[in-house]
Amino acid sequence: MNPKSHAKQIAMTAIRSYGVIQPGRTEKAPVVGCDEKKMMAEKAIVADESAYNIRPNFKQKFRPAAIQKLIHQALVDRLTGATYNADSCATWTKEIADEIKNRLKDLDLPRYKYVVNVVIGEMRGEGVRMGCRCFWDADTDNVAQDTFINDSLFCVVAAFGVYFY
């Protein structure tokens, strides 16, 4: 018997019987019946459905326009009528960031990781510039931001959605 055909026969026996390959086994592979073929086809369909997705589908992408509305609503709910107080701002930033993060999680975008950055400052009539740089996949990752301003304070929020491969 040819060594290659012998190894192939052993491998086929192990695959069809769903067992472990046993060295030295020389019996012929069993004939696959209709029920077994059906089971194999069902397993192939399940394997195709649970295939690893490298990108989110169109409906599951991080959409900045929708996220910006979510951020704006959280800011309005929390900061309307608030006056700047340096002691309170530390807790406000944490509360706002947690609220926005929880609302992002409620959107149930699979495999997205979120980073929420909140800055609160006092309105003194001075200009403020903020910027960030990110290295990411422009097809799947994105950012949404919004600004809240009243007479005594300003708040800038940036929410980053990064797709986890």
TrEMBL record:
<protein>
    <submittedName>
        <fullName>Tctex1 domain-containing protein 2</fullName>
    </submittedName>
</protein>
<dbReference type="InterPro" id="IPR038586">
    <property type="entry name" value="Tctex-1-like_sf"/>
</dbReference>
<dbReference type="GO" id="GO:0005737">
    <property type="term" value="C:cytoplasm"/>
</dbReference>
<dbReference type="Pfam" id="PF03645">
    <property type="entry name" value="Tctex-1"/>
</dbReference>
<dbReference type="GO" id="GO:0005868">
    <property type="term" value="C:cytoplasmic dynein complex"/>
</dbReference>
<dbReference type="GO" id="GO:0045505">
    <property type="term" value="F:dynein intermediate chain binding"/>
</dbReference>
<dbReference type="GO" id="GO:0007018">
    <property type="term" value="P:microtubule-based movement"/>
</dbReference>
<comment type="similarity">
    <text>Belongs to the dynein light chain Tctex-type family.</text>
</comment>
<dbReference type="InterPro" id="IPR005334">
    <property type="entry name" value="Tctex-1-like"/>
</dbReference>
